[in-house]
Structure formats: C-alpha cells, structure tokens
Amino acid sequence: xxxxSDAASLEVELLQLPEVSGLALKSNLSFVExxxxxxxxxxxxNRLITSLLNEAKSGAPLNVxxxxxxPNATSNSLPSMFPAGTAPPxxxxxxSGSPRIVKxxxxxxxxxxxxxxxxEPVKEVIPQFYFQNGRPPPNELKEQCLxxxxxxxxxxxxxxxxxxxxxxxxxxxxxxxxxxxxxxxxIDNGTGVVTRKAFIxxxxxxxxxxxxxxxQIFTILKQPQLKYLTQDDFKPVLRELLATHPGLEFLQSTxxxxxxxxxxxxxxxxxxxxxxxNGRLTLRELKRGNIIDAMQHADEEEDINKVLRxxxxxxxxxxxxxxxxxxTDHDFLIDKENLIRYGNHALTYRxxxxxxxxVPRRFTSKVExxxxxxxxxxxxxxxxxxxxxxSLEYWFKCIDLDGNGVLTRNELQFFYEEQLHRMECxxxxxxxFEDILCQIIDMVGPENESYITxxxxxxxxxxxxxxxxxxNLNKFMxxxxxxxxxxxxxxENPTLTEWDRFAHREYIRLSMEEDVEDASNGSAxxxxxxxxxxx
Length: 535
Known about the structure:
This protein is 52% helix and 1% strand. By secondary structure, the protein is mostly helical. A two-stranded antiparallel sheet has the order 1-2. Helix 13 packs across helix 25.
C-alpha cells in the first residue's frame, strides 16, 4: 500500500479531528505530516483504509464517515489522537471554521440569494399625519357638534336665515358673534339660507372644526383665489360689529363716523400685524399677532373702550381729532406745513422731510406731497409709542440716510443739529452732541460702538427715547426732567403701553375742550333767547 508522503497536498479537514483547530493544522504542515504517519500506523486505520480501497476497486460508493453524499454515512468518527476525556472543549464554530453562529431564517430567501439572511424586522405602521383638507374630527367631538347643530336647526328644517345664524356662529363654531354674516355668506352660496346639510358639509365634513381659530378666521375672511387677507376682507366684520355691539350703538345715527371707525381699526390691525408692510396679511402673521384675542375680548366686553387693542372708540376719537386739527382745509389730506404743527411744533423739519420722502412708508394718498388719513394713522402710532417694534422700524428707516442698515455718528449728528439749534433759540442750556452720543451708546449698548443696528435698538428698553432725543424736542425735555408724575403712572399700570397712556390723556383733554365749547354755545343760546324774549 502506497503512503502519501507529501503533507502539503493533504486536506487537513479530512483528518476530522474535532479536538484540533483546522487553522492550527494548516499553519504547522510538518506536524501534520508526523500526525498523519502516526495515524496510518494504527491497526484500526489500516483496516479502514484497506476496506475503502477494496470498495473503490469494486466501484461501490465509498462509505466514508462524515460524508453526507453517502447513503450509508454513519455518525462514527475516525480514530482520535487524544484519549477520551483528555482534550479541552473547543468554542462553538460553524462549518466554515468561524467561531460566530449565524441564525438563518427558515424558508427560502425572497431575494433568491444563496447568502444567509437574518430574520426581517417587524414593520411598524406609521399613522397618517398629513391631511390635505385638515385632520378629520374625532368621533366624540363630531357627535357633540352634531348634537348642538341638530338642536339649533330643529325648528328650522328649511334652514336658517342670516339674522338667525348668530347662535350657530357663537355656540357651535365658538367664533366671535360678529363673524356671523361672513360665515353665513361663506356657506349659503347666494341662496340667503343655510340648511343643516350645508352647514355640516362646510364645518364638520370640511374639517373646519378641527382647525385652530386663527386658521378658521383666515379661511372665512379671505377671498378663494388669494392666500392672504386684504383690508377689504375685514370690512364685513367691522360693519357687523358696529351694528350689533352695545358699546357702539351711539354711532348708528352717524354713518360717516362708523366708516371712519372701521377704517381706523383696520389700519391699526395692519400697522401692528402686517410686519412686511405690503397690505397682504398672511396666516402666519395672523397667528403671531394678538388680533384674535382682541376680537374675542371685544365680543365679550360691553364697554368697547376697555378693549384697548385695536377696537377702543376713545383711541379712534383721539386719532381722528388729531388729524382733523392738522387738516385745516378739511380735504382729508395734510402736507408738511400741517404736520410740522403736530404736538405743538414738537418735530424738527428734517424728520418731517424724511417722512414726506416716504422712506419709512409709501403714502396711500396718491396725491404728491400730501399725507392721507391712513398714512397719518401709521405716523401717530409710531410717534406716540416708540417702544413698539413697528415704531422702531419706522423711525430707524428715517434716520438711516444712506439705507445701509446701520446708524452712524454722522447720521445721528445730522438730525441732532436741528435739535441743538432749537434749544439755543429757546434759551435753554444746549447739550453738546459728544455728550449726547455717549448717552445714546450707554442707553442702547450696541454690539459695535461705532454704529447702531435695528437689532441693537430692539434689544434695549430705552431705544424709543433715542429718537425723541434726535427730533422731538418736547419729549426730549420731558425725558431729561424725568417727570415723577409720569413715572408713578407707569409703575401703577405697567401693562399699559405708551400709546394707551397718550390716548387716555388726550381723550380727557379733548372731551373737556368739547364740554367747555358746548357750555359756551349753550350759554350763548340762552343769552340770545333772553334778548329776543321781549320781542
């Protein structure tokens, strides 16, 4: 029998020695050769090899232990080199010799790949989070709304007319009552009647009830083809407010003042909320503003003058009277000479020139060199409350002569020069610009002391006083003297804005002047009657 002596051609896996690593055998070929020779010398090995050779010669299939191709394969292993129980156990390993155990998925792979695959993870079902027409209402909320709707439409099977719809707006939709007409017109499609089915289709099936109140109001007011609100969109709401609010009943006999009041409210809304200044109020701006809270307050409060945000009649009265005092020819337009008289000639000519150059805001009057009522509303709100962000932006544009977004020393000095000259003419002790500049820097605390940005101004509490220093002499003097009466007022009512305090003072003054005028007219009438009595 020939014995293979070339150990390099020997497949070490055929040795089937579970006690020894196959990698160790391959790296020590001389040891493998010695081990193989010793194995061949064993009697059992001789008998096994002889048997295998005879089977090979006869053409019968080889019955090699461990060969899975043989039908007679047994679980007997080849003779071991180690006595039983003397070899340490090896770590578990796969048929490829790797110590890692790979868990195979039962069944064929979906990809048809012969590679081993792990079990697929369980798929999680992500609930729908985007709805094109709004999130559908929960069943419980929908049922509650249907119950209230059925109750209000129970005795009106043919539908509700416009004067009967207010209860639906208030109780079912939870909107201010003066939105009743606008909501009615949105649903009735010109029929003059809103049926139960039409209301349910719009409010419940249209998912309006699940939207926030700002989105509801925006959807009701805006025109279908637009993505923003115009000033005209608010007019139906203001008309209904004037017709139904108990605090505005006295205006029903004077339609011209009803119209002016509505315009003033709308101008105030756009001044504070439409920060882009383009006259197009977006949904984002509506949500960021406080107009929704003010509307709800106006709907609940019988005294309209307690609704300081936007709707106060006293505030409208002050604005309108101030404009009327300046408009000497009553053509509803004012020019530079008219505006220079504002606040007892408080403003400088240079700042008035900047206002009429339309740098802070383009005029809507369409008349060259003339300011309209809407333009004046923006001006007076900016002038009397310089602590608000719209006011800071308004006056910053005026002072920024070159429009580069920063206020430099030269720009500040340009406007203060006229203030200094006016102080000298009034025999007041002048304050040098160098001292004023140091004071301004201390008040603002800019990031870079060589210039002031709008961001610097918005971050300071005294920023508004800087503009008074530059172009409003009366307020500059009041700021320097620190009137203790005004300071005490601010501490007593910290929630009131500068505009609220100004409007309150002016309304008292104007009403007293009107009372005196009425009294004088009344006494004159009595005197005239007494003279005419003898005749």
